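Complex 416.
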Amino acid sequence: MKVDAIDHPLAKNQTPRIVLQITLTLIVLATIPLCYPLLGYPLFLLKNSCNNSSDHSPSSHDSREGLIGELQREKRCDIFSGEWVPNPEAPYYTNTTCWAIHENQNCRKYGRPDTEFMKWRWKPDGCDLPIFNPAQFLEIVRGKSLAFVGDSVARNQMQSLICLLSRVEYPVDVSYTPDERFKRWKYTTYNFTLAIYWTPHLVKAKEADSNGPTHTGLFNLYLDEFDEEWTTQIEDFDYIIISADNVTDLPMSYGYRKAFRTAFKAINSLENFKGITFLRTFAPSHFENGLWNEGGNCVRTKPIRSNETALEGIDFELYMTQLEEFKIAEKLGNKRGLKFRLLDTTQATLLRPDGHPSRYGHLPNENVTLYNDCVHWCLPGPIDTWSDFLLEMLKMEVIRSYNDEKLHSKDKKNDD
Ligand SMILES: *[C@@H]1O[C@H](CO)[C@@H](O)[C@H](O)[C@H]1NC(C)=O
Ligand SMILES: *[C@@H]1O[C@H](CO)[C@@H](O)[C@H](O)[C@H]1NC(C)=O
Ligand SMILES: *[C@@H]1O[C@H](CO)[C@@H](O)[C@H](O)[C@H]1NC(C)=O
Ligand SMILES: *[C@@H]1O[C@H](CO)[C@@H](O)[C@H](O)[C@H]1NC(C)=O
Ligand SMILES: *[C@@H]1O[C@H](CO)[C@@H](O)[C@H](O)[C@H]1NC(C)=O
Ligand SMILES: *[C@@H]1O[C@H](CO)[C@@H](O)[C@H](O)[C@H]1NC(C)=O
Ligand SMILES: *[C@@H]1O[C@H](CO)[C@@H](O)[C@H](O)[C@H]1NC(C)=O
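Predicted structure with 2-acetamido-2-deoxy-beta-D-glucopyranose bound:
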């Protein structure tokens, strides 16, 4: 079965509403002064030419026309189905400009000879996905906070985001613990907080024999119990990006389902939480010629086309499980005004078997791992595109909350 045959909550059910909202935006924008700051979002996010602060005059007709024009030209589509196309301008950082690259993902340092894997961008079928704009991102998240909740792939994504933002600003470390698994960063110019909560299984887990002589690394999982390491910490965050890719310990899709149900339940039960929850969907690994513990490897150097593969077997099952649990959580959350969004990177990720460290996550003579890494992503690399998706979704949130606020104030006026 193919991914795009799935009944996609974002792609299908919500498209008409998005179109409607954009139409409303255009009407609304035509009637308000340019650059009107609403909910802390300056409108110039939507248009670069609105960055002259002395130019706030509602009579600046040309600029307003320009703004509406740009929004009209910005075609929307399902950004998550498409193909990878060459991008000679990439990458946008290197291992010398960004210190946030984790050693095990510093593929160039450890001798990966090819460079083409860094030179692609995602092209949705029906529109364009802009390349990540770090200044725009930081403007949107000004005064806000974002937390990654997940395993080492979530950390991989956060490090990619830090590197992409490094062209504008490096964050300062404001972690509340020396534990490397729980980092907190601050972008001081933008008062933006970025954090990661490491939770490999989303639920409570205890190492089976952490004090015993045989350090097996096996975990006892409590699928119904919150992992308080993160559930007690996230209440004040504006955005949460939750994910789970490491399924080695979970009794396949049953455990995966339970883990997500419990994690979403934790979020929906937070009394003061008002943020948006993004589910970053399952990132398939790419072991070929064997499983991870059977000498499997990922040696390709090019993306594959969408007609050459399909999400199958356990990957497909896990992906569908996520979507089902997401929909259940969204329904429950909506009742109390909580927003859930799908950051559906699975299809784009599936097509990038060339982006993993393989054996280049460490020096060849080091015995640090016994298997090839076809799970994490080289930096720079395809995972940078997840930030392109994220920024596009945050822009949609700007438009949505703008419209909500506008309609709200209109309702109020009508009531008077
Ligand atoms: C807005 O800023 C960008 C980059 O700083 C600049 O290229 C552009 O000309 C500016 N536009 C206006 C109208 O000032
Ligand atoms: C901003 O606009 C004003 C008048 O429209 C102009 O005099 C000024 O040079 C502009 N400043 C910048 C930085 O573009
Ligand atoms: C960066 O990558 C180059 C190879 O492109 C390598 O020689 C160098 O050691 C790496 N530097 C760091 C700081 O990782
Ligand atoms: C920074 O943002 C936080 C919310 O994340 C807010 O409470 C605080 O007042 C902001 N500080 C400044 C100096 O704007
Ligand atoms: C997955 O989890 C297991 C146990 O928690 C751990 O040993 C392993 O390194 C993890 N794998 C990845 C790719 O994170
Ligand atoms: C996939 O599509 C491309 C371009 O449309 C075409 O050249 C190629 O032959 C197709 N491959 C398969 C396996 O159908
Ligand atoms: C790696 O392991 C092999 C075989 O176990 C051993 O001969 C070699 O000395 C080890 N290398 C390092 C750098 O530890």
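The pocket of 2-acetamido-2-deoxy-beta-D-glucopyranose (ligand 3) is lined by residues 95-96, 106, 108-109 (CB under 6 Å).
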